[in-house]
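thought: fold this chain, then report.
action: predict
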Amino acid sequence: TYKMKFGNRGMNQPCVDLRTTRCYITPQNHGYAVDNTSLPTEWTPLMVNANDGSNEGIIHQTRPWFSVQFHPEARGGPTDTAFLFHDFVRNISEPNSTCVTTIPYSLPVAQRKVLVLGSGGLTIGQAGEFDYSGSQAIKALRESGVYSIVINPNIATVQTS
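observation:
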């Protein structure tokens, strides 16, 4: 394991299931992660965090054992990963049926160019909404080193710029 710089905390952490590449929104609260390179040969990564690529779960390749790093609530919270409880019961009742196949996954490449589209004001007085939020978006993108182009069809902006 290793200590993460900030950890994964909060209700909306995206996790990718490496068996299907399906992404689930999960609640998390942890500051350490499993180093994939330190896993024994019979263990394989099961889930990966879509934000930072950290390990969010491991699974044994032949035994009915797996673990996840998030809270797979079946009730009282998100139910996206309630299937993990069903998988656990199935693995215990049929331990010899556990065979794991994972799909290679990598984090998306960060884009360095972005097109920011404005819709124009729908009613009088809405012209300033995109002007402000669009300028804030451009400022944040510039600070992140992202080249941006703005298309704003708002006639009021053109008249006042």
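thought: worth noting. The mean pLDDT is 81.
final: tokens above.
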